[in-house]
């Protein structure tokens, strides 16, 4: 278990944030001296160990991303002036409108989306978590968007 803790820490220290699932897959690498089994039990072991390491403050909580659970809310402001300040703060010029290429990022699920979302937002690049399987409708809509 101590060896697994060290490997988890090393992986996260070098590249964070990562989702729990991504850390699990990194721990199943057959090139490791003692890889974790690709099973529900292996996933549970990594998941519980990561909770323990965060509670002990061995691993900073910010090193783990979880884009699968989000709150839903309606933005509100204290008055018109604060609403205008907010609108001004979120304004982004569309530099992609004149680009010679169209760019969007697709990931397998919401889990890795949480890792790249900040970069996509900074670069104003659309991000599409396919949720394991791309639906026919999502692929059709993407084809229409890309051909435009």
Short description:
The chain is mainly alpha-helical. The chain has helices at about 1-15, 20-25, 40-55, 80-90, 110-125, 135-145, and strands at about 105, 125-130.
Keywords:
148 residues; globular
Order of helices and strands: HHHHEHEH
- Number of helices, where a helix is a run of at least 4 consecutive DSSP H or I residues: 6
- Helical amount: 40-55%
Neighbour order of strands in the largest sheet: 1-2
Low-confidence stretches: none
Main β sheet profile? 2 strands, parallel
Instruction: Report the mean per-residue pLDDT as an integer.
Output: 88
Strand content: under 5%
Instruction: Give the overall silhouette.
Output: globular
Count all strands and give the number: 2
- End-to-end separation in angstroms reads 53 Å
How many domains comprise the coordinates? 2
- Over all CA atoms, what is the radius of gyration? 20 Å
Structural class: mainly alpha
Would you kindly provide a written description of the structure presented here, covering whatever features stand out?
The protein is mainly alpha-helical. The chain folds into 2 domains: 2-63, no CATH class; 96-147, no CATH class. The protein has 6 helices and 2 strands; from the N terminus they run ααααβαβα. Helix 5 (110-123) links the parallel strand 1 (105-107) and strand 2. The termini are far apart.
Topology at a glance:
Blueprint: H1 2-14, H2 20-27, H3 40-55, H4 80-90, E1 105-107, H5 110-123, E2 127-129, H6 136-147
Parallel strand pairs: 1-2
Helix pairs in contact: 2-3
């Amino acid at each position: 278990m101590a060896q697994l803790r060290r490997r988890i820490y090393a992986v996260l220290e070098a590249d964070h944030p990562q989702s729990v699932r991504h850390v699990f897959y990194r721990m199943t690498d057959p090139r490791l001296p003692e890889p974790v089994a690709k099973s529900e039990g292996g996933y549970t072991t990594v998941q519980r160990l990561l909770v323990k390491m965060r509670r002990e403050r061995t691993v900073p909580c910010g090193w783990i991303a979880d884009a699968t659970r989000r709150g839903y809310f309606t933005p509100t402001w204290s008055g018109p002036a604060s609403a205008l300040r907010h609108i001004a703060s979120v304004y982004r010029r569309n530099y992609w409108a004149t680009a010679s290429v169209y760019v969007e990022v697709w990931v397998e699920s919401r889990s890795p989306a949480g890792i790249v979302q900040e970069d996509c937002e900074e670069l104003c690049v659309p991000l599409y978590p396919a949720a394991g399987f791309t639906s026919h409708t999502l692929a059709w809509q993407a084809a229409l968007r890309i051909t435009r």
